[in-house]
Design goal:
The complex is a heterodimer of chains A (150) and B (309).
Chain A: H1 32-39, E1 57-65, E2 70-75, H2 85-99, E3 105-110, H3 118-126, H4 128-136, H5 138-148
Parallel strand pairs in A: 2-3
Antiparallel strand pairs in A: 1-2
Chain B: E1 20-25, E2 31-36, E3 41-46, E4 54-60, E5 67-72, E6 78-83, E7 88-94, E8 99-106, E9 113-118, E10 125-129, E11 134-140, E12 145-152, E13 159-164, E14 170-175, E15 180-186, E16 200-207, E17 215-220, E18 227-231, E19 236-241, E20 252-258, E21 265-273, E22 283-290, E23 295-301, E24 304-308
Antiparallel strand pairs in B: 1-2, 2-3, 3-4, 5-6, 6-7, 7-8, 9-10, 10-11, 11-12, 13-14, 14-15, 15-16, 17-18, 18-19, 19-20, 21-22, 22-23, 23-24
The chains are: A alpha+beta (150), B mainly beta (309).
Chain lengths: 150, 309
């Protein structure tokens, strides 16, 4: 393991209930908090912690444009040469692929300056043929599903 | 572009194929080549004069993993295929045995080869790759093999699609860098047996600022000279060349912009028939296929779109 003792961070409070939560006539727009709630519990491939606990994903590094159908998630690997960066990005992409309406264009990128191979990893994660090919691989798909399970 | 999209009047080949990703007809229309995720290329032949009877008469094996593209040369003599294994394979059709034999394996790209396109009349093949570059190849009789005659650099990300104009003097390339580049051929100063293929290709125009995401497909209509693109921003766009081809820097204007698709547009393809007589007009259709599982057809006149079908 490359980073045996990662620093842990405080988890966000649960979203406060709202009076209109159960009112079908009120439309709740997609926002950064909703996307954050979808990806915060993803398990790190190496550590027994979630991406939120490791500060790999943070709410202020998520941009959501509900009317423009765009979601951008930036994530920060725990160390700049983390070999798991592509896998973590793939897990985030798959979770959003399975959860968000298909109208959204989703970009998953490494936060600038946080990884030595940032451009290479970003290019792989944005190539839909490579993502599809990765998910055709049963072993890799099993690893991804483990990271996405609770 | 699964074959399963075909209407019930057409033969559904999808059950016999593993995830076909790209397919092209031969120049005669009697053959169809399909590239598959399982690493194989299949050649299908129409066995009767109806469109419903097709038979797989050759399965070409050799690529290590997904085949991204496959297409016939203009003469029908050659078939080319490319793969994530970084190679381009050239297959030669042997008249006497009616078989395809691999006659060259080209290793010029350093990453996945995403797309192929043959010159409209010559044995000149172009390939585009995840390594951001384009290669052009022709047969070399001196070594009985194929050789690279040009390596085009300039795109800042994956080259997804290529298209020649009708004469083959211009090549359009669509890229993940959100641009389409136009490359112009200049024959060599010293004429030779290979003057048609061995000149230089220079990027003379870059269409930027039109596409807001990856450009996945480009196709050049050989009757109207209109250039169509399919983009990850859900748009189908058509550009018209505003200067004659002899101009050193051809310029283009956007004449059509359609966003009826709700997801990425993966493929655009022209179907054009020359006018049947003096007063007749050309019949021009533009097909587009998208991740939204819809195929749209738009009818065009020489100068622009008339109406959507």
């Amino acid at each position: 393991m490359e980073n045996a003792a990662p620093q842990l961070h405080k988890q966000a409070e649960a979203r406060a209930p709202c009076a209109t939560d159960y009112d079908d006539d009120v439309v709740d727009a997609f926002d950064a908090r909703e996307v954050f709630d979808l990806i915060r519990d993803i398990n790190d491939p190496e550590h027994p912690h979630t991406l939120e606990e490791l500060n790999v994903v943070q709410m202020n590094q998520i941009d959501v444009d509900d009317t423009g159908n765009a979601v951008r998630v930036q994530f920060t690997p725990t160390i700049p040469h983390c070999s798991m960066a592509t896998l973590i990005g793939l897990c985030i992409r798959v979770r959003l692929l399975r959860s968000l309406p298909r109208r959204f264009k989703v970009d998953v990128e490494i936060f600038p300056g946080s990884h030595v191979s940032r451009d290479q990893v970003n290019k792989q994660l944005s190539d839909k043929e490579r993502v599809a090919a990765a998910l055709e691989n049963p072993n890799l798909l099993q690893v991804v599903n483990q990271c996405l399970s609770h | 572009m699964a074959l399963g999209h075909a209407s019930p009047n057409f033969k559904d080949l999808s059950a016999e194929l593993f995830a076909p990703v790209r397919m092209r007809f031969s120049p005669t229309g009697r053959q169809l080549v399909t590239a598959s995720f399982d690493g194989t290329v299949c050649v299908w032949e129409r066995t009767a004069d109806t469109v419903t009877e097709w038979e797989c008469y050759a399965t070409l094996e050799g690529h290590e993993n997904e085949v991204k593209d496959a297409c016939f040369s203009a003469s029908g003599e050659y078939l080319a295929s490319c793969s994530r294994d970084k190679t381009v394979w050239i297959w030669e059709h042997l008249e006497d045995t009616d078989e395809y034999d691999c006659c060259s394996i080209l290793n010029d790209h350093t990453q996945d080869v995403k797309c192929l396109r043959w010159h409209p009349s010559l044995d000149l093949l172009a390939s585009g790759s995840y390594d951001n570059t384009i290669c052009l190849y022709r047969p070399d009789p001196d070594i009985s093999d194929w050789t690279r005659v040009a390596h085009l650099t300039g795109h800042e990300s994956t080259v997804w699609s290529l298209a020649f104009n009708a004469s083959g003097s211009l090549l359009a390339s669509a890229s993940d860098d959100k641009t389409v580049r136009i490359w112009k051929f200049t024959p060599p100063e010293q004429p030779s047996a290979f003057s048609g293929t061995d000149g230089t290709w220079t990027c003379v125009t870059t269409l930027s600022g039109f596409h807001t995401r990856s450009v996945y497909s480009v196709d050049w209509c050989h009757v109207t000279n209109l250039l169509a693109t399919g983009c990850g921003d859900n748009h189908v766009r058509v550009f018209r060349q505003t200067q004659v081809e002899s101009a050193s820097a051809p310029s283009f204007e956007k004449v059509y912009d359609d966003q009826t698709h709700t997801q990425d547009v993966n493929a655009v393809l022209w179907c054009a028939q020359e006018p049947a007589g003096h007063n007749a007009t050309a019949r021009i259709l533009l097909a587009s296929a998208s991740d939204d599982e819809v195929i749209t057809l738009a009818r065009f006149q020489e100068m622009g779109p008339s109406n959507c079908v």
